[in-house]
Design a protein that fits this description.
The structure holds 2 protein chains of 2 kinds.
Chain A: E1 3-12, E2 15-25, E3 30-34, H1 41-48, E4 56-61, E5 64-65, H2 71-77, E6 78-81, H3 93-98, H4 112-124, H5 140-153, E7 158-162, H6 170-185, E8 189-193, H7 197-203, E9 206-211, E10 214-219, H8 226-233, E11 235-239, E12 245-250
Parallel strand pairs in A: 3-8, 3-9, 6-7, 7-8
Antiparallel strand pairs in A: 1-2, 1-4, 4-5, 9-10, 11-12
Helix pairs in contact in A: 4-5
Chain B: H1 7-27, H2 35-43, H3 48-82, H4 94-107, H5 117-137, H6 143-167, H7 173-182, H8 190-209, H9 211-217, H10 221-226, H11 231-253, H12 259-271, H13 275-299, H14 308-326
Helix pairs in contact in B: 1-3, 1-13, 2-3, 3-8, 3-11, 3-12, 3-13, 4-5, 4-6, 4-7, 4-11, 5-6, 5-11, 6-7, 8-11, 9-13, 12-13, 12-14
The chains are: A alpha/beta, B mainly alpha.
GO molecular function (chain A): ATP binding
Function (chain A): Part of the ABC transporter complex HmuTUV involved in hemin import. Responsible for energy coupling to the transport system.
Keywords (chain A): ATP-binding, Nucleotide-binding, Translocase, Transport
């Protein structure tokens, strides 16, 4: 399934957040959306998830305008992991993950297919051992994995994740990035806002650099120009022979 | 905290508890009737004893149970919608608004127009209060502000209620005011309960149907929308359902507070926090608690019977403070 943004603009409270964004995400792609704080990454992902309408331009899924989809249709096409993840009631972790199956029936009655999707999602995020615990008792990183599992349990062709690895320990950062890459390899379209440039360059098929609401870089991680990263982040990337970023240094002036 | 009982097991246990309490209610009252005699008088005509059991005690116990069940379900539904364990029809002023509606219909003689006017008027006012709360409150303001808005609505409706009573031509208005504000199920007949049946049935159905949407709302409004929940529908079901249930409960028993907080809170301690699974047990427990409270005030050795709403507040208000002290929001 293909997502397309065409000359998309968003202003919030008089401030331009996204300016004239063109974006195309195809099956098999794992896009790392990077940019400094306030660049507009979350707004871009919210727009892709159908939560933020634009002042101009379009956002389409398989050429259908995203705002024209019903909530159920949309939920079966794309799963969205927001950056802020409140859980107002301390539900059992497995019930929270099962909410990812909402569009397929009732969360009160999970059928065998739903149960399998939930179990697979828990396994993919390394959270199977947490499933019987109330989410209120979990640590921040454990809860983040439960939310990610909820997103995966929907088994949608499109996955939109806002900082999916922000609260995770290094081992889980690696395993989650590998898992998202595997999803893309199996034909999903994945886009994730990330701050971890080395991990993004290692696992993503493509990096999009957003700065002040504009896309300033869009390339395979290995060939993303060093100058773009230096201008946007004020840091200098260190790269191995294949071009993968394996460290960051203060910008060398 | 682990789940102690599956929500369905809890519901079955509460049905049994409610039945036991209602049966005990038949034995207890000013006239001492032995349990066996009371049961016999319920099914066969035993003269005066049958009149007491069938026409005084049974309707009274059922009225207390129905009113409590309405409040328990309305509380659980409102808490799910507002995502706040302190939401309660009494605390938020919905009960007071419903009482104002009922009193307006009675003291300005609209109640004589048709049998359904009083419950309907109570429900209409409850609907108004619930809508105001949702528009001003849901998820966007802090718990403290939501409660303050409720306190404001409650005080305003209480004041208007007093004003209506003062202006009323009816000399008994002031003593009735006490009944509406503090709640009682003394001297209720089957007819009083029957009047509200359409509203309770619709109310329970609406609240039950909102369950999946309320579970989704656990993740917040935006995420709930992205997983496919229809928030407009869920909101409408809870607001209309809670209004119908609170209106019906006020029409039966007057304004009774805190059942809507205490019942869901206890249910959560037993069978977890999933809002959809809290609804049915909360209704059953609300009924059981109010039936037990009504039993208690009949056993207490006071010259004048304690008002049911007072008994509920004596149990419920400390519970409210406890919930307020212990509740916290989980965010990451």
């Amino acid at each position: 399934m293909t997502i397309n943004m065409h000359s998309f603009c968003v202003s919030l409270g008089g401030t331009e957040i996204l300016r004239n964004v063109y974006l195309n995400i195809s099956p098999g792609e794992f896009i790392g959306l990077v940019g400094p704080n306030g660049a507009g990454k979350s707004t871009l992902l919210r727009a892709l998830a159908g939560l933020q309408s634009g002042d101009a331009g379009q956002c389409t899924v398989n050429e259908q305008n995203i705002s024209e989809l019903s909530p159920i249709e949309r939920a079966k096409k794309l799963a969205y992991l927001p950056q802020s993840r409140p859980v107002y009631w301390s539900m059992i972790a497995r019930d929270v993950v099962a909410l990812g199956r909402f569009a397929y029936g009732s969360p009160l009655q999970i059928d065998a297919r739903d149960a399998k999707a939930v179990d697979n999602a828990l396994m993919a995020t390394g959270a199977t051992h947490l499933k019987a615990r109330p989410v209120g008792e979990l640590s921040g990183g454990e809860r983040a994995r439960i939310h990610l599992a909820r997103t995966l349990a929907a088994e949608t062709p499109i996955i939109i994740a806002d900082e999916p690895i922000a609260a995770l320990d290094p081992a889980h950062q690696l395993s989650v990035m590998q898992m998202l890459r595997d999803k893309a390899n199996n034909g999903s379209s994945v886009i994730a806002a990330l701050h971890e440039l080395p991990l993004a360059s290692r696992f993503c098929t493509r990096i999009i650099v957003l700065d002040q609401g504009r896309i300033v870089g869009d390339a395979d991680a290995k060939i993303l120009p060093t100058e773009v990263i230096e201008c946007t982040f004020g840091v200098t990337p260190m790269r191995d022979q294949s071009g993968i970023i394996n460290g960051l240094l203060p910008k060398i002036t | 905290m682990k789940t102690i009982l599956h929500h369905q097991t809890l519901s079955i246990s509460l049905v049994v508890l409610s039945s036991i309490l209602i049966i005990i209610s038949l034995f207890i009252g000013p006239a001492s009737i032995a349990p066996t005699a009371a049961i016999a008088a319920l099914f066969n005509d035993h003269g005066a004893i049958s009149v007491v059991v069938r026409e005084i005690r049974l309707p009274r116990a059922l009225a207390a149970w129905v009113a409590g069940a309405c409040l328990g379900a309305a509380g659980a539904g409102l808490q799910g919608l507002l995502r706040n364990p302190l939401a309660d029809p009494g605390v938020l002023g919905v009960s007071a608004a419903a009482a104002l509606g009922a009193v307006l219909s009675i003291y300005f003689n609209f109640a004589t127009l048709a049998f359904w006017v009083t419950p309907f008027s109570a429900i209409l006012f409850a609907l108004g209060a619930t809508t105001i709360l949702y528009v001003l409150g849901a998820g966007r303001v802090s718990t403290a502000r939501l409660i303050l808005i409720g306190v404001g609505i409650s005080s305003l409706c209480g004041a208007l209620l007093s004003l209506v009573m003062n202006l009323s031509p009816n000399p008994y208005a002031l003593s009735d005011l006490i009944n509406w504000l503090f709640g009682t199920v003394a001297n209720r007949s089957f007819q009083d309960i029957a009047l509200t049946v359409p509203f309770t049935v619709v109310g329970f159905a609406a609240i039950y149907a909102s369950g999946p949407g309320l579970s989704a709302l656990t993740l917040g409004e935006e995420t709930a929308a992205t997983i496919g929940a229809n928030l407009a529908r869920t909101t409408m079901l809870v607001i209309a359902g809670a209004a119908a249930l609170v209106g019906a409960s006020v029409a039966i028993a007057g304004a009774i507070g805190f059942i809507g907080i205490v019942a869901p809170h206890i249910v959560r301690a037993f069978s977890g926090h999933n809002p959809a699974h809290v609804l049915v047990p909360s209704a059953l427990l609300g009924g059981a608690i109010l039936t037990a409270a009504d039993l208690m005030i009949r056993v207490l050795p006071f010259d004048q019977e304690l008002k049911l709403g007072v008994a509920a507040a004596l149990i419920g208000a400390p519970g409210f403070v406890w919930v307020a002290m212990s509740s916290k929001r989980i965010t990451s």
